[in-house]
Amino acid sequence: MKRFFIAVCTFIFSLSVFAYDYETLRKAMFDNNPELMTLQEEYNRSQLDVKDAYSGLGPTVDLLISGTYMLNPPVDAIYLNVDDILNSIQWPGGSKPGSTGQYVKLYDGMENTLYNFQLSVTQPIFTWGKLTNAISLYNQISDIKLTQVESKQQQLETELKTRLISLKYLEKINEIIEEEKTYADRLVAVSENAEKSGMLLHQDVVDARIQAKELEIAQQDLHEQINNQFLELQRSTGIENLSFELLEYDLNENSITEIMAGDRASMEEKALSGENLSIKLLTQLKEMNQTAKKIAEGAVNWKPDVALQATLGYGGSRFPLAEPNWLRKDEYTANFSLGIKTTVWDGGKKIRDVSRRVSEAKTADINQLDARSTIKKTLNEQWNTADVCTMKIEYQDLKLEATESKIKQKETVFQTGYGSETDVLNAKIERCNQRIEKEKQSLTRAAACMTIEFLCK
User: Fold this and answer.
1) Sheet with 332-341: strands ordered across
2) CA distance linking residue 93 with residue 348, whole number of Å
3) At residue 26, what are phi and psi to the nearest 5 degrees?
4) pTM for the full model?
5) Which residues contact 27 (CB under 8 A, 6 or more apart)?
6) How far, in Å, CA of 91 to CA of 83, rounded?
7) Number of C-alpha atoms within 13 angstroms, CB side, residue 455?
8) Angle between helices 130-196 and 202-237 (to 10 degrees)
9) What is the mean pLDDT of the chain?
10) Which of 28, 353, 252 is nearest to 160 (CA)?
11) For FRET with 324, which of 136, 256, 336, 421 sits at 20 to 30 Å CA-CA?
12) Contact 372, 380 (CB under 8 A)
């Protein structure tokens, strides 16, 4: 007995150790959700784009090195005939030396190797604000990516809460169906016995069987819903083989009541303010379009970009400083250039680019107004859904109260021998159906409240 108690305690302890609470699931979802991971990588790339934009303010340094080996150099050695030199001299008295037949080497010829080195530095000086605006643009894009990450995190948090709440309600509904199945199975058995004794018609037995089969189908559909919820939860969190036993999450009805009791006017105002990530994202898109418009305006016709370029070069048969008398040979170069580049005419393309940016800015304004209207409409729809569900829950409570009285009455009559057990069982089945409907309405109301909470963050 002692060993059995220890084994049970160990099993319970193992379940508690490996149970997943909300914070654990939330962290796993942030670490493993595919959509969130994609957005985070996009944000990381946008940070690299910002660094690239800042690099545009500084100089660009290019180095070109080439080496050539020539089997047959184009310039051979140069020789001069000594006799030609002597003959070109005006000798006094008409006497001149005799022919020597000698040659003097003036140039050894081009070597087989040829090297070329060139270092160029290009520094933008004036670009009509295109570089600084580009930095602002990429910073704004990066901020948009970050907002998308934050918005996705909020969405995942709401999705996680909704799924956990759904699982808790579905678990309660499954327990009610299991209880109802015992009543339905008992009703079938009682009806079949009553038919044999002539107390019931065969049609009543068939109706009881149909009722039991409907419960079986409903439970199968419920299991499919539960399975789908677990599969989605596993996909988002990356945790395999989740089950009810591994979830450590209590259904907090107070949080739903607090949302229902909140000041709806102030919550709507918060949902429509700049704190709402959807509104914030549209505002950032609007600012980004305005910056893109400035860049387009800086690139229109007759607005030149000015840059300074410095080039240092060396070309010779040997590496720099290794060739004798390299300084005297003057094989190095140092050039400084001031470049101006502008578009004179491109068929009006750049002007149309400005018009496009203006149109996109106007579209961003329209989208922002439309988003506010959509949020307001969605809030009203969710409030109405929550209110209607509350009324339906209260309605089911009244029906349950009446059904409880009916069950007690049927049981009293049955115990006195004047009633039938089928009446009692039918009343209990009716009570189970009312409880299931109440849980369904509670689930719908909870989902509406989670949506309201998400919109008002």
Assistant:
1) 60-69, 113-126, 305-316, 332-341
2) 84
3) -65, -45
4) 0.79
5) none
6) 13
7) 27
8) 160
9) 88
10) 28
11) 336
12) no
Q: What token pair was written down for 393?
A: 């829950």
Give the pair of three-digit tokens for residue 175. 């327990």
One-letter amino acid for residue 236 of the chain: S
- Tokens read off for 431: 């009570």
CA distances from 23 to 153, 238, 272, 446 (A): 13, 14, 29, 20
Can you tell me which residue has the tokens 């109301």? 445
Look at the chain and count its residues: 457
Distances from the Cα of 210 to the Cα of 20, 184, 213, 216, 308, angstroms: 40, 10, 5, 10, 90
* pLDDT tens for each residue of 111-169: 888 888 899 999 999 999 889 999 999 999 999 999 999 999 999 999 999 999 999 99
Instruction: Tell me how far apart the terminal alpha carbons of the chain are, to the nearest angstrom.
Output: 54
Question: Per-residue pLDDT tens for 355-392?
Answer: 998 898 889 889 989 999 999 999 999 999 999 999 99
Q: Which residue has the tokens 């595919």?
A: 34
